[in-house]
Amino acid sequence: MKSVVACIAGCLSAVSLSAMALDLHGLRADEVAIWAAPVEGGAELASLRADAAVNPASTMKLITSWVALNRLKPGYRWTTRLVSAAAVENGVLKGDLVWVGAGDPRFGMADLQTLLHSLRLRGIRQIEGRLLLDKSAFSSIGTADNFGGDEGKSFTVEPDTHLTGLKVAWLRFFNDGNGVRVALDPPLAGVRLQASLGNGGDTASTCPDVRQWVHIRQQGSQIEVSGKLPAACDGSQAYVNVLDQNDFAAQSFAALWSELGGSGPQGMALGRAPAGARTLAQFQSEPLSVALNDINKYSNNTMARTVYLTLGREDGSSGDTPADAQHAVRRLLAEQHISDEALVLENGCGLSRRERVSARLLGQVLLNAARGPYGNELLATLPLASEDGTLKRRFAATGPRLRMKTGTLKDVKALAGYWQAADGRRLAIVAIVNSPRALAMGPALDGIVADLIRRFDRSVPDNSANTVPDAIMQP
């Protein structure tokens, strides 16, 4: 009995000493989960509440990225196709054209234009039938619940098989010899733009954000723009999210097709590619590694959810895309002997009130990734401290030897990634704050990470956590 009591006391003492050894910079021990260990092997450097299930915010993207690199491979590409079973006579497609969406997360207006240009090169100038959207790549898109107050913001745009330009249209502003004006790009037929703009003249020397001088009001498919546009804002732009996914894709298609001299199609509907349909044009995306760069450096939720769903489509074990995506993640964790006990998945991007990981689970994924064949590919996607992405204005004195994925939600602030010492040794670090005061504790979180770096690498100076207050960014 004495030995049991002694063991319990010793274990409690070890936990207390571990917590006491870490300067939490004003955070309470129950507000933060911390884990750190050398990539090249050896004992853990730090562990505090490392097995607690916590909301990771966008550091969840690291798990999705790791699974995607291992399952899809870095060179994976999405292929978007235009197919039809109808005949072509004298440049006229005598029936429906089917746009088979692949869920390409980076498919943009320029890519759609390239796809349509290929259709024109085939000699087709008129589509006599309808444009059918084949959305069979995903059985459903899953959820990101309880973000209703964020509707209309770019980071809440839902994924889609026909995601086009992240469903963002651009307002282009001009103040030149032809007067003050604004144009919608692309010119979507279903969107009405009403502008009341005056000439702001030389009231500004620069134009960092045109919304400082113009007011943009959007209600449904109607956009109203008012204000006085300075000459310095000539050529500036601002984005708007309009229409639903299907209408945005179809109207973008029609606008760009018209610009290329094409006519039709005669409306839009949902449909499947018929048996025997032949491919008339196709567009192949950039590799997965390029998409992951956008996802992790800039914390793009829409793209991350699309990659997660692609994992489900390729897994295909049940035909339920979100469920199959979760299956793909858990199966790889099991194969690599990483416990998924703390893992709760909703959409794989961290834009979630429900998703959970433990700091240890996320840390073990980082170790596995760094030691695996695609470690360099994952590392290249992470923001470099003080240089780019969501870390551009943080860790000014530490510099690019620190690469970390950030995470921010209401009540969540997180960092996970790697430090590389000058001698090549690497440290995997996870630090996650779950607290009502999380958003105010960014400097504390940075301080904890800087302390862990100095504990691992004595050559780092004490001012490593120099941080410029960050602008509000995507979670």
From TrEMBL:
Superkingdom classification of source: Bacteria
Keyword Transmembrane helix: no
UniProt-listed InterPro entries: Beta-lactam/transpept-like (IPR012338), Peptidase_S13 (IPR000667)
A GO molecular-function descriptor: serine-type D-Ala-D-Ala carboxypeptidase activity
Protein EC: 3.4.16.4
Pfam assignment, any one: Peptidase_S13
EC category name: hydrolase
SUPFAM superfamilies: beta-lactamase/transpeptidase-like
Record flagged with keyword 4Fe-4S: no
Signal peptide bounds: 1-21
GO terms, biological process: peptidoglycan metabolic process; proteolysis
UniProt keywords, alphabetically: Carboxypeptidase, Hydrolase, Protease, Signal
Family the UniProt entry places it in: Belongs to the peptidase S13 family.
Name of the featured protein: D-alanyl-D-alanine carboxypeptidase
Source organism per UniProt: Aquitalea magnusonii
